[in-house]
Every structure is written in C-alpha cells, then in structure tokens.
Amino acid sequence: MVTFDAGETLAERFRSHMGHSSSLYGYAMRGMADDWEAGGPTREACRGWEDSPNGTMVQLRFLAGVFRLVLAGAAPELVPYYPCLGGTLPPDGVWPVMRQVVGRHTEQVHEALAIVPQTNEPGRSTALLVGLFDAVEAWGLDRIRLIEVGASGGLNLHVDRFRYDGPGWSWGPPDSPLVLHTQAPGVTPRAFEIVERLGCDVAPVDAASHEGALHLRSFVWPWQLERHERLTGALAVAAAYPVVVERAGAGEFLQCVLADPPADGVLTVVWQSITRMYWPATESARVAALIEDARSRMPLAHVSMEHADTPDAADAELAVDGRVLGVVHPHGIPLWVRPGTHA
Ligand SMILES: C[S@@+](CC[C@H](N)C(=O)[O-])C[C@H]1O[C@@H](n2cnc3c(N)ncnc32)[C@H](O)[C@@H]1O
C-alpha cells in the first residue's frame, strides 16, 4: 500500500506527503514541517502525536481541523486561499496566515487530530446506478431494498434522488440539486423504486446535520471544486431526506439485516464502494459468506465498486455479483469506461 507520510519525524512526514506540490496543501505541509522543527504552534498542536504510526496522516487531520475553522467562520483571513470558498489568492502565501490561525486555535487543531479522515463521495452513485440497472434487468424486479455497508454519511443511499446524464441518456429527477455528468456511453436506464434504505459504518456520519456536513466537507481538498459542488448538492438532498446510518461493522450489520427476506417481489441489493481496503480480512470473508448464504433465501444482487486486488490499482472496478461491468474513476465520475476502452 502506498504511504503518503514516510519518514521518522512528523516534519519529515509532512514534507514527504506532497513533495514539491504547488497546491495549497503542498505549501501548507512544508510550512507545517518547518514550524514543527522550529517549535512553533504546529509543534504544540501536534503534541502527543510524534510517535503515531506512519499512515496516521496527522497532516490531513491537521489540515481538516484548520478547514473546519475556516468553514465555521473562525479564520476569515484564510478564506481568500480556499478556492471552494471563492478564494483566488495564490497558495504560496498561505502558510504565514495559516500559522497565525493555528496559533490562535491551537487546542482546536490539537483536538482535530483525533478525527480519522473520512469522505463520502456522491459521484460513486454513478457506479451504483449502473449496477442497479444491471441487477434490475437481470432479476426482472424493480422494487429495491438498498443496503450499503461502509456508507459513511449514506449519501449514496440517495442514488435515485440525483440526476444523471451521459451520451444519449439521462435519468433521475430533473429538479435534483445534484446532476452527475457521467460521460458513460451505452447505458440503458431501467425504472426502479427504492422501498427501503439501510446503511452502516464503523464511524457513521449524520449528513443531515450541520456538524456532519462540516466533517465531510473538511476532508475534501479545498481546490477540488467539482467534488465540493457534488457534496453541496448531495448534502441538500440528505438534509431533505435524512437516512440513518447505523454504527456497525459490515459483517455484523449484514448478519442482522439479511436474516429475514424482504416482502415478495423485492430485490435486495447490497452495495459497497471504496470501503473494503479498510476492512480486516476477517470482515471481507464474513461479508462474502453472509451474502452467499442470503442468496438461498431471497433475490439478492451484490454491487461493488472497489479497487482491484492488484498493487497500486488507481481505478476501481464496478462489479455485480463478481461480474466486472467496467472500470471506474475512484470518485465515480467523470470517467466510466467499459473494459478494453480504458486508456
Ligand atoms: C473511503 S470511505 C467510503 C465511504 C462511502 N462508501 C463512499 O463511497 O463515499 C470508507 C468508509 O468505510 C468505513 N469502514 C471502514 N471499515 C469498516 C468496516 N469494517 N465496516 C463498515 N464500515 C467500515 C469508514 O468508516 C469509511 O466511512
């Protein structure tokens, strides 16, 4: 697995993450590294984390904490550096300004280090939708019980409340606050109705709440404007139709919700995206066994969008019941291509 924070000291790890990147976080991380070595506010904010294992990504936790301060209005002088907030200043000047903010809010940044980086990418609904079309066609059933494991804030459980388009096709409510331009050719839409939505995560986020929205936004890099726009649309949907994501591991949850079949004529769809890489091997084995076992009791399709088991696989695979339908950008869009056409 690629580690972004190689090195002995926190300063070395901060410098290694983005190398010579000229992005906002590249400049910020190099400033943090110098400041940590000089004993500045970064050193104080990171106290107790000096010996955390590589892979803890202290720098991402730190910058998400700063981002939440900016989003909450506590650091207005940083707004001009954050493109997603309309900022247009070049990033090379950010560190001295950010250092002052960290000095003023050292304890809040320190507390932010306890929060594990976590995203919820609604662009992945594109893959889920294509998987759902495939499952509906294969089973001839159009009433869906949708179960998502590793759902984070459950944004992709709203798959039918977003609008999609691609060459020659479109689907979903025309007035949805989120429109996903898939660029996916050859998709044949199918009609379906989601009659039940269930989700779990070991660290569930209430995406309908202000705090939950802030949490999810703070882990999306501030210059990724399209991702922020998608999140804004999806969060508006989540606020209008709150779903409960239960606090549970994937296996524990499936054991419970797959115990009994749904009503006649309902297709159970188990969905997962970019979560398996965080599971222990025992979780993966348990999930696979529970799904296989449930197939004997109910119509069930397993739709997954996960990285292939090859080292450093950049893209993800969309599969239905293990049958690979296509290669997907890890954020679901803009790229979705059928096998053989991927450059
Ligand atoms: C990269 S996020 C993806 C979230 C969502 N599936 C998406 O595509 O936007 C991975 C999620 O998996 C969750 N997770 C990690 N291990 C888990 C487990 N054993 N069972 C359930 N969820 C888990 C994390 O808490 C996190 O919310």
Strand order of the largest sheet: 6-5-1-7-8-9-10-11
What is the count of distinct domains? Answer: 2
Radius of gyration: 21 Å
Question: Biggest β-sheet: count, sense, barrel?
Answer: 8 strands, mixed
Classify the helix fraction into a percent range: 25-40%
Order of helices and strands: HHHHHHHEEEEEHHEHEHEEEE
- Tell me the number of strands: 11
The average pLDDT value, as a whole number, equals 94
Give the low-confidence spans.
339-343
**Proportion of residues in extended strands:** 15-25%
The helix count comes to: 11
Termini Cα gap: 23 Å
Tell me the overall shape.
globular
Query: Ligands bound here?
Result: S-adenosylmethionine
Structural class: alpha/beta
Task: Summarize the structure in words.
The radius of gyration is 21 Å and the shape is globular. With 343 residues, it is α/β, with parallel strands linked by helices. The two termini are 23 Å apart. Strands 6-5-1-7-8-9-10-11 form an eight-stranded mixed β-sheet, with helices on both faces. The chain has a three-stranded mixed β-sheet with strand order 3-2-4, with no helix packed on it. The protein is built from eleven helices and eleven strands. Helix 11 (281-295) links the parallel strand 7 (266-273) and strand 8. It has helices spanning 10-18, 24-37, 41-45, 58-71, 94-104, 106-112, 125-139, 210-218, 225-240, 250-257, 281-295; strands at residues 143-149, 163-166, 169-171, 179-181, 193-201, 245-247, 266-273, 300-307, 316-320, 323-328, 336-337. 36% of the residues lie in helices and 17% in strands. Residues 339-343 have low confidence and may be disordered. Bound molecules: S-adenosylmethionine. S-adenosylmethionine (SAM) binds at residues 118-121, 124, 149-152, 156, 200-203, 249-250, 273-275, 278-279, 283. S-adenosylmethionine binds at residues 118-121, 124, 149-152, 156, 200-203, 249-250, 273-275, 278-279, 283.
